[in-house]
Each structure stands twice: as C-alpha cells, then as structure tokens.
Amino acid sequence: MRIIETVVEMQAFSREARKNGKTIALVPTMGYLHEGHASLMVEGKKRADILVASIFVNPTQFGPTEDFDAYPRDLERDRNVAVAAGVDVIFAPKASDMYPRGFQTFVAVEELTRHLCGASRPGHFRGVTTVVAKLLNIVMPHVALFGKKDFQQLAVIRRMAGDMNMDVEIVGMPIVREADGLAMSSRNAYLGPEERKSALCLSRALATARALFRDGECRVATLREKVLRIIGEVPGATIDYADFRDSETLEAIETANGQTLIALAVTIGTTRLIDNCILGEEN
Questions:
Q1: Which residues contact 38 (CB under 8 A, 6 or more apart)?
Q2: Rounded distance, CA 162 to CA 169, Å?
Q3: Hey, which residues does 237 pair with through a beta bridge?
Q4: How confident is the model at residue 283 (pLDDT cuts 50, 70, 90)?
Q5: Separation CA 138–CA 235 (nearest Å)
Q6: What is the pLDDT of residue 11?
Q7: What is d(CA 152, CA 158) in angstroms, rounded to the nearest whole number?
Q8: Which domain range does residue 270 map to?
Q9: Catalytic: 142?
Q10: What is the mean pLDDT of residues 206-216?
C-alpha cells in the first residue's frame, strides 16, 4: 500500500491510473478508522480497480468550540485497518496543502443544510462540501462511498455532486453497529464505561420507534414522544434533536411512512453522537 501526502502527487497518480484505463474508488475519512470505515473500503475494492482512502481531519468543518484539536488521530492504526481492507493508496494531506495561504473558495448546499446538524453546527456543512469537492477533484474517483450514519451529510454530498454535474457515483453504505447496537463512530473513543452504556439510548430509541411503526403507529407526535422519553430517562444525556423527516428532502413531516427518517443527535457527557434509521428498513 502506498501513502501519498501531497495534492500534486495524488493528482498525478490518479491521472496516470485513468490514462491506463483503471477505475478509482474513494473512501473519504477523518481517520481513526473502525469497522464502519472498513466496510466502505471493502465495498470500494469491489467496485473499482484502485481503492483510495483519504485521511484528513478537516479544520473547516469544525466550529471554534468543537473538538478539532482533540479529535482522535492514529495514522499507524489507520494504516493497519486500511491494509486489511484492501486499500491501495492512503491520501493523507496536510491542512496547509489542502488550504494554502489565500484560500477563499467554498462550496455550499443551501436548503438541505438548514436543518438537523446544519442548524446545530453553523458552517459545518460548508466545510464538508468544500473538502469533499476538493477530494473529488484531487483523487478523480469514478465512485465515492459514504456511510449512512451521517445521513444528512450523504444527502448533502449527493445534492452537491448532482447540482455541480460531478462525474462520480456517490454510494451510501449501511450503518455498522457494535454488538450491543451502538453505531460505530470515531468519537465513541471519548466515552467512558458508564457513558458507553448510556449511549445505547440512541439505538434503543430508534428500535422502539420502528417497533411502534410496524405495529401501525404513524403519528409522528406519538413516535417522537416515545423517543424523547427513552433518551430523557438516561442521566447525562442531552438531546440536540430527535426529528422525523422525509428521507429525500429532509423536510419535517407529521405522518410517518416506510421512508421516514428518524435522526438523532444526543450529547452523552461531553460527547455528541448521531444516529438514524429509516422506519421501513431493517438496517
């Protein structure tokens, strides 16, 4: 496996690969890789001749009081996960190369970012779409894979790629969970033992809402009340949002159907966690 650290070298590599008729898959990450990331990589390996994983903790998607400095980083650990998953190239640029002096161009998706994490984290998605647009331009993949745990992020990136006529297929992959149901996340490393137990309230709330829906309950107000009660009973859990949305438009709804998205953002202690599900789907 090769590690590339500069934009110029990555672009040259991808240009040569495309010239030779090779297809490229990209899995963008911020590192501290886990099985969720590995699942994207394994699928990417199936879809293209060359698999690139980017590892870059993107400063433009963190707010001034967020955890950019504390975000877990371990390139050697990441290298081992990537090798096992079949990655051909790790692209690990420096911030000074991605955002050189004088940088002043950003990409923004308007409507889809007004709700959920976009409302709670002003500027977050502008940073996400900007860095993903840059990665797509640098790596030049035929396909890029993203996890559905960040459901709004996936929707925003799909919209950006479509609106900007980007010649890349955007693939969303199922959430990967721990055996007890906790959605895998790099930020899970922040949780202490008791907080780790408390964090299960997110997946428990989603499962309960799904069960109620399967039993015929379609009133969003009733489903939300149950979700809020389950999370609210957990000491140290602070709800940012527990929303029911149309999974295509992310607009609020009053009556649920099989394509309704339940999106959660909950802070456990000092760790902000997100999770979601589509009511009519199993994963």
A1: 81, 84, 85
A2: 10
A3: 268
A4: low
A5: 45
A6: 98
A7: 10
A8: 186-274
A9: no
A10: 97
